[in-house]
Design brief:
Blueprint (H helix, E strand, L loop, with lengths): L20 E2 L23 E8 L3 E2 L3 E4 L10 H4 L3 E3 L2 E5 L5 E4 L1 H14 L7 H14 L11 E10 L12 E10 L10 E6 L23 H9 L4 E6 L2 E5 L3 E7 L5 E5 L10 H14 L14 E5 L4 H9 L3 E8 L3 E10 L6 E2 L9 H14 L9 E3 L2
Parallel strand pairs: 1-4, 10-11, 10-17, 14-15
Antiparallel strand pairs: 2-3, 2-4, 2-9, 5-8, 6-7, 6-8, 7-19, 8-9, 11-12, 13-14, 13-16, 16-17, 17-18
Helix pairs in contact: 2-3
């Protein structure tokens, strides 16, 4: 990458983790009872923040007490939405120390998202060093309970203080964290989906393959309508093709005549977010079939073949009618693996109802969930995915 220069010809400062300034809160907040927490509604004691200006580049990173941001009313983030973010988690390992799950993947995706909306570039390795320091400071907030973690939200917004349709040459990069437990309070019967084709989540050539704030707001109204009809999430369609489940990637498990299983997920065609959990699930399914790392509760002899190909609602209906459709689940950082119980679709006489399993997840989904939890917490080593903070 070429070195950017300021207007006076001097190189602009890169994001430098060695310049970090830490100011700790004088009084720490009481920790909540884990079972009472709602996702994303608990603010911890501290946050990380660093600003970029077009003249000097990246400023001094700070970890300081959690506080509101101060932004110019004309900031680009309010007018033109150059807002990108990531979702990642920290887990307590067997030694009581925090760990991150494949964090470099998040740094790479954040950089791609920032580039897509022409925000200033940053050093992902430096940002990861800063994030690790923040997690180290906030580790008391990680609930020491299975299925609980510390959710991290790295965010970058354009702060150019002027109107005019142009890329933001100023930015604010910050990270907030929040303790979290299960995203869906009860998954005993799986989540209910309303398949929607009249509202499109992403369009070819658009921004569906990047984690941008502007991708999410258009889904709020359709989600509200789905809730009125008794459904918890939307199954987003593009024509007849399935794309995503709510804000999750989707997998369908289909039985072959010979007893093997096919695991289908839509391809990364630019409309699908390249989820870190999605990538991990594909790797774990392949590892099980090759005998390299077995899914708990799934026989070693069970072959599961992965396919990144388009899936249609028509196929879902046929597989269901023929008794071949065993499981559908969504995957993502917030949920890990979330079972689907039923799907409603305009024009169908009746819903597709998935086979019911104890706890909601079928054997493959449950095996993936348990294996992911063991890897994320450092109980099981797989490909170095679980990264110690210290």
């Amino acid at each position: 990458m070429a070195i950017q220069n300021s207007t006076n010809g001097q190189p602009k400062a890169k994001l430098d983790a060695s310049k970090l300034v830490v100011k700790l809160a004088e009084q720490l907040k009481p920790l909540p009872v884990p079972e009472t927490m709602t996702f994303g509604q608990t603010q911890t004691d501290h946050m990380l923040i660093v600003n970029y200006d077009p003249e000097h580049g990246w400023g001094t990173p700070e970890i300081k007490p959690y506080a509101p941001l101060v932004l110019d009313p004309m900031s680009s983030c309010f007018q033109y939405c150059p807002n990108v973010f990531e979702g990642m988690k920290a887990y307590l390992g067997p030694d009581g120390e925090p760990r991150l799950f494949r964090p470099q993947k998040n740094m790479e995706r954040l950089a791609r998202s920032a580039e897509r909306v022409a925000l200033p570039p940053f050093d992902g390795d430096a940002l990861l060093v800063l994030i690790k320091r923040l997690v180290e400071i906030e580790k008391r907030w990680i609930p020491n309970k299975p299925g609980y973690s510390l959710y991290l939200r790295p965010t970058m917004i354009g702060t150019r203080p002027a109107l005019g349709v142009a890329a933001s040459d100023a930015a604010c990069l910050y990270v907030v964290v929040t303790p979290t437990g299960p995203y869906f309070k009860s998954k005993a019967r799986g989540i209910s989906l309303l398949a929607v084709s009249e509202s499109v989540r992403a369009w070819p050539g658009g921004t569906g393959g990047h984690k941008l704030g502007l991708n999410y707001a258009p889904g709020f109204a359709p989600q509200r309508e789905a809730a009125k009809k008794g459904y918890e999430q939307i199954l987003w369609l593009f024509g007849d093709r399935i794309t995503e489940v709510g804000a999750m990637n989707v997998f369908a498990i289909v039985k072959r005549a010979d007893g093997a299983l096919d695991a289908f997920t839509p391809p990364l065609d630019g409309t699908i977010l390249p989820g870190v959990t999605r990538s991990s699930v594909l790797s774990l399914l392949d590892a099980h079939t090759k005998g390299k790392s077995l899914l708990p509760g799934v026989p070693a002899s069970q072959k599961i073949y992965t396919h990144e190909i388009p899936i249609t609602m028509s196929e879902i209906k046929v597989w269901s009618d023929e008794g071949k459709l065993l499981e559908i689940f969504g995957v993502g950082t917030a949920v890990a693996v979330a079972p689907v119980g039923r799907i409603g679709y305009q024009g169908w006489d009746e819903e597709v109802v998935l086979p019911q399993h104890d706890g909601g997840l079928g054997p493959v989904g449950k095996g993936l969930f348990d294996h992911l939890m063991d890897i994320q917490s450092g109980k099981v080593d797989f490909e170095g995915w679980s990264v110690p903070v210290v």
